[in-house]
Amino acid sequence: MKPQVVLSGVAKSYGETPAVADLSLEVGDGEVFCLLGPSGCGKSTTLRLIAGLEAPDAGSIEIGGTPVAGGGTWLPPEERKVGIVFQDYALFPHMRVRENVAFGLRGWSRRDARRRVDEVLELVGLYGMEERYPHELSSGQQQRVAIARALAPEPEVLLLDEPFSNLDLDLRRRIRQDIRRILREAGITAIFVTHDQEEAFYIADRLGVMRRGRLWQVGTPEEVFHTPATPFVARFVGTADFLRGVVRDGRVRTALGEFEVHGEFPEGAEVEVMVRPEYIEIEAEGAAEAVVVERTFLGGHYLYTLRLLSGERVRCLQHHDVTLEAGTRVRLRLRASHTPVVFPRSTN
Ligand SMILES: Nc1ncnc2c1ncn2[C@@H]1O[C@H](COP(=O)(O)OP(=O)(O)OP(=O)(O)O)[C@@H](O)[C@H]1O
Ligand SMILES: [Mg+2]
After folding, report:
1. Is residue 221 located within the same domain as residue 269?
2. Which residue has the higher pLDDT, 17 or 75?
3. Which of 19, 186, 228, 237 is the least buried, fewest Cβ under 10 Å from its Cβ?
């Protein structure tokens, strides 16, 4: 895929605080990329650097093959062909929907602007609402106006900074479906910031997990979930438990059984083995004994907390028709389809 946005060794500090450190990333043409990470990890700063609202201290940025920042180059935001949707969407309250969306179309002929506004309103499903004021729209509709406004000038890249964080959970879930469709239909390159793993998985072709200004892993949702690069990534993109293990003869022994180990570990290495609740089965023939400690109802599933003979705890996801009381003895095994991910002991 042709890269549309390229960051190479980008760094940005505010005083002593490094907000973004040595960040390199390529986002492909037409790709929907999510930046995922905890509060304060540098997600918004990264978007602001791409948009040209901040200048990098080091490194360089290219958009559509054109250098826009770094190495003595500087292209101001209005020349970068980038649209932005912020968290608070900042519509102009005194302007109708049509005027809000047409705002970035100065320099267009009246006819072209009108046609483009109709086109993007159609795309976001708000056709027929162009004469309303923002206060006459629901929050979800206002959010879509903000997206239409950002898309109207035909940017090459759309940046979205936690665009759903003002919406309630139910609406977030509904609108993220729309957004995915809108971004794909528009065929635009999009970088979407969120700290919600479920949202990132839902929307992204690929995602990058950030922490303390750095990207720790970039990959498809499946890659990041099943083969996290670090224990932090493992915990951030799902539920993970870590079991102590020792490497012997290319295999790792844990309280949950013995598994093949990939990667370079010396004989006798002490490691941590990541297991997810989705990987564990309760089965009469299972390799390890355990006791049910707690059961949590999640709707379609129960999440069980189990104590192994080693005293270590693991969680296990079961269909809602498997009901076990605390104190029940069971046997567990790791699903055959999962070769567990192994980390050196106490990395992060
Ligand atoms: N204008 C600024 N002046 C000083 N420090 C800043 C400024 N903007 C951001 N920072 C600091 O840079 C770091 C990264 O901030 P950033 O806004 O990029 O985080 P974020 O990942 O978007 O967080 P959130 O999820 O809370 O929005 C934080 O430590 C923040 O306090
Ligand atoms: Mg932010």
Report:
1. no
2. 75
3. 186
